[in-house]
Amino acid sequence: MGTVVKLPPQEGATLPKHTYLNNGYGLKSWLLTGDHKRIAILYLISITFFFFIGGAMAGLVRLELLTPMPDLVASDTYNKLFTMHGVIMIFLFLVPSVPAVIGNFVLPIMLGAKDLAFPKINLLSWYLYVFGGIFTLTAMVLGGVDTGWTFTTPLSTHYLNTHVITAALGVFVAGFSSIFTGLNFIVTTHRMRAPGMTWFRLPLFVWSNYAASILMVLGTPVLAIAIVLVALERTIGIGVFDPSRGGDPLLFQHLFWFYSHPAVYIMILPGMGVISEVISTFSRKRVFGYTAVAFSSVAIAVFAFFVWEHHMFIMGVSNYSALVFSLLTMLVAVPSAIKIFNWSATLYKGSITFETPMLYAFGFIGLFTIGGLTGVFLGSLGMDIHLTETYFIVAHFHFVMVGGMLMAYLAGIHFWWPKMTGRMYPESLSKLAAIITFIGFNLTFFPQFVLGYLGMPRRYHAYPPEFQVLNVLSTAGATVLGVGYLLPMLYMTWSLKYGAIAGDNPWQATGLEWQIQSPPITSNFEETPIMDHEAYDYEWLANKTPYEVTSVG
Amino acid sequence: MSHISPVIWQFLEKWLTTFAIFPPEASAIAPYTDALYFFLLLISLAGLAIVAILIVAFSIMYRKEVHPEPTQIEGSTLLEATWTIIPLALFMVCFVWGALLYFRIYNPPTNAMNIYIVGKQWMWKAEHPGGQHEINALHVPINKPVQLTMISQDVFHSFSIPAFRVKREVIPGRYSTVWFEATKPGTYHLFCTQYCGTSHSAMIGDIVVLSQEDYKAWLATSTSGASLAQNGERLFASLSCNACHSGDAAARGPNLASVYGSKVQLANGAFVNADEAFLRESILNPSMHTIAGYAPIMPTYQGQISEEGLIDVVEYIKNLNSNYRVQQTLNTSELAPTQQTVKPGAASGTSSGTAAPSVPGMVK
Amino acid sequence: MDSQITVSNGAATEVASPAHEHPAYLRHHFETVEQQREASSLGMWLFLLTEIMFFGGLFTAYLIYRNWYYPAFVAGSHQLSIVLGTTNTVVLITSSFTMAMGVWSAEMKNKRGLVLALAATFVLGLVFLGIKADEYHEKWEKHHIPGANFSIEEFVHPSSPKEKVLAPDMAEKTQMYFSLYFIMTGMHALHMIIGIAILSVLLVRAIGGAYTSGHMTTIENFGLYWHFVDIVWIFLFPLLYLISRY
């Protein structure tokens, strides 16, 4: 099997003498850092922590669902499990994953900048994330919250006595973390591009994160106000969502979904950015239809704001508004389809190798296509009546979020690992993990489409016995999936000490981040780079003198 | 679907339903939903196949060992246009088809018989106009359109019958409706599909589809003795509604005899259709629904009447309208309970509780 | 943030250590002062955009309920003191003016002018909050704070002959009006309090000579924030105080 990897000779190879990692030791130098790369590492550690908590909850949920009877945990406990799973995975894992870890690390370097525009706000962003996470964990430890991650009123305002406000506060604070990250990215992209770095020379990763940042900045505040209103209604008893006082519970739905639909694009767009980079690098070709892919990211961001009511089609909204939103939902599906085809076309006449990031990227393309197409099922009004609020929805969003986004995140982590740490991860083991993940994922979530059409509702603790076979398949898959996610934890940690020295550009990639040492120095560049070639310019790369590509200090 | 090959389809259906891979098609609309589903599956499989074939084929043909030099390609506007327009066109077909189906499911025919559903944590209450009450179950006759008028007493619930392919949110504070026509006798799942708290998964029940004969028998044996309208008549009196809505020309409140289903003019000049929601809202928020020519003096009954009580009063007012009584008789005359019940004042002859006094508006 | 490390990297060139010829306030990740200024300005505008979206949710709720319960909103609005509301509006607009004078003074490197302007803005901000507190207190006395103590007496039996009598069910909806009144003005007041707190820090720094030696981005950006808070009030005032007044 061919490979594109070119490592420096390992005999006597060491990491560079000065990197951002050894520029200052001690807790204070990390906890008070302004270096975007260190903040990215801080995020990496914290979101991995929350991922495993959220994953443990998912494991317990699937374990309970092995049998039709509610026999593992009490109903209230089960409700708390799936609520915390959703809250942690969405707000504390998926939303920050690519932007806060990978974006924080590589975005400034891709632009040719020394840091993000506002390093202190970047650090604040991480602290807000941590506090949001602590609030959420506190809610868990105090006894849990069982509103569902959607905090539906009037259940969350008047009919539960669990720690709703604590959890809601956690989400509120984490939301500001997201807003500040997005704000930082937008300003950096506008104002800190290196000389010669025009918009259309930017890597597509930047376009995707820019589009996601617009969504973060404009959408998250609406979630904030929705949460504030729920908290006020719970505490001081205003009746904004209470029908007996003239309020309307449907108002909460509108406010909540006005954010939460763009939120799903906040989650997926950065992942799509990763896929662009990976597909390009491992087929040695510029991305097919660069302009189309760039504009489709922005198109997705714009359309994202106009489709929220498709989460409410059966909730008694006017039939005519349902028509409008269904039409718009069909429109928002098109840019994603364009991207899939462009990535596939990038492979044409390329020179393809199958390193681990590429395997994850292929997984993404297949699984996101399925997930996205099932979104069309749900956007089709009459079909949605039967499918909504069932396991079909659960399967749909896990396909796009886990099969799509999480795979993209893993692709990105593997791809930029050598840049972040200076070390390579073990290739055969990582390929195995990727394949295990793919198999486990399909086994877990494909049966859920069938369950959904059968009518099995979401958030059900017990279910009719004839649904058991499919549930058992799903739980079996979850076990395999768990192994697939555990392996990278182990071998990535191993690689920090024992992995091969990577050198500047093990993947022979074209981005600016690959033209500096691995790991980078604190200021990224010794001199401000001048961009004089197009994005994904493999000819330029080939013409660079060899030592510039592979030297280490 | 079944017209492609009835034999194969019957065999597939039976096998699929027993193994719980596919839900039974037990309503008139179910085949239409399934048809749209299979179309969506088809285009999804086609799309997936195209992408998969491209990925696999290119991976094989252009792997590094056989194709070491990549050819840099900028793009192709023609291709971009193609794979924009074709998916868009297909999605538009899905949109139109889905919209037609949606309007079909949420617009009941005029000859539908009405059953009320009240959802509360954590059970379903079904109230037939003839006074039959059910908990976590719903008996319906076969081959007759049935409309459900639903409301929640507390939080959001959702009334879902997968075998009929219908589902609607049950909302606190306002009525929502859905209709279906059952086509196969049997017992089918009823689920609450909107998370509503601790025993959300226990809020399930049975939809029992009976032949029309069996349904008539069931009606007769299950009646509580008083129809909803009769209960409503009692409430109407006990809440002193008749003090103002006495039916006199000079009464303080409008005559309710032919209100239901008509277009009424409000005090602010607007015309509205006086449906169930209007009647319910008028009782709870009278000053926002004052009829033109009348003073806004009606007190509110918010907090003094339950949702079941409201349903009873609404049913009573509906039945004051002789046109409505006639229509319901037409809809359900074949479904009159088989035995005459002994209780005086009980539903006699027609099933829709037409034991209202003969003079509309005059109550004892 | 350390960027003074010189890295010897194989055949790479040595860092030409620029003898710190830039102003002290230029952060090292920026190339020029101009870039830094433009970046912080853009950042501030984006932040204000998020604030617009935040208040937008409240305005949406307000518009919907005002549409549904108009008579109740009229009655509720007439319970607010138009004198105090107008005074507050004038106070806030004046404070925006003094803030703008502050920005001008900073640009002109006029330390005394800046300190006076900031102090005036600070005082006016406190006056606004004081009047607001008085209004809230009045609502408390009249039992118009939503919750257990709320009384609809004033709306079913108005003390002034100019007010329309409301039916009890519509009178109950005045609670919705007051809920929105308190949340919207409360959220606005919270933003004012934060602004005043920051203002006090800026005032102390300005007295020490900051912002009047060429680097006044902070004053500029804070000015933007203050003007934004003012503009929110410009919307709140007519929506809450001026419903159907003649």
Give a description of the structure.
The complex is a heterotrimer of chains A (553), B (364) and C (246). The longest helix of chain A has 37 residues. Chain A has 553 residues and is mainly α. Chain A has 17 helices and no strands. Chain B is an alpha+beta fold and 364 residues long. The C terminus of chain B is likely disordered. The longest helix of chain B has 32 residues. Chain C is built from eight helices and no strands. At the A-B interface, helix 3, helix 8, helix 9, helix 10 and helix 11 of A face helix 2, helix 3, strand 7 and strand 9 of B.
Topology:
The complex is a heterotrimer of chains A (553), B (364) and C (246).
Chain A: H1 27-31, H2 36-64, H3 75-111, H4 119-142, H5 155-158, H6 164-191, H7 204-235, H8 249-283, H9 290-304, H10 319-346, H11 356-379, H12 381-387, H13 391-421, H14 427-454, H15 468-498, H16 538-543, H17 546-550
Helix pairs in contact in A: 2-3, 2-4, 2-15, 3-4, 3-6, 3-8, 3-13, 4-6, 6-7, 7-8, 7-9, 8-9, 8-11, 8-13, 9-10, 10-11, 11-13, 11-14, 13-14, 14-15
Chain B: H1 6-18, H2 30-61, H3 77-106, E1 113-120, E2 123-127, E3 133-135, E4 137-141, E5 145-152, E6 157-161, E7 166-170, E8 176-181, E9 186-192, E10 205-210, H4 212-222, H5 228-238, H6 241-244, E11 263-265, E12 271-273, H7 276-284, H8 307-320, H9 322-332
Parallel strand pairs in B: 1-5, 4-10
Antiparallel strand pairs in B: 1-2, 2-3, 5-8, 6-7, 6-9, 9-10, 11-12
Chain C: H1 33-68, H2 70-78, H3 82-107, H4 111-141, H5 153-156, H6 168-172, H7 174-207, H8 217-241
Shape of chain A: globular
Number of helices of chain A: 17
Low-confidence stretches of chain B: 341-364
In whole angstroms, the N-to-C terminal distance of chain A is 30 Å
- Gyration radius of chain B (Cα, Å) is 27 Å
Helical content of chain B (DSSP H or I, runs of 4+): 25-40%
Computed structural class of chain A:
mainly alpha
Mean of pLDDT of chain B: 88
Q: How helical, in percent, are the residues of chain A?
A: 55-70%
Give the number of helices of chain B. 9
Mean pLDDT of chain A: 94
Q: How many β strands of chain A by DSSP?
A: 0
Main beta sheet of chain B? 5 strands, mixed
Poorly predicted regions of chain A are 547-553
CA radius of gyration of chain A is: 23 Å
- Strand-pairing-aware structural class of chain B: alpha+beta
Task: Sum up the overall morphology of chain B in one term.
Answer: elongated
Major sheet summary line of chain A:
none
Q: N- to C-terminal separation of chain B?
A: 57 Å
Instruction: Please give the order of strands in the largest beta sheet of chain B.
Output: 3-2-1-5-8
Could you state the order of secondary-structure elements of chain B as H and E? HHHEEEEEEEEEEHHHEEHHH
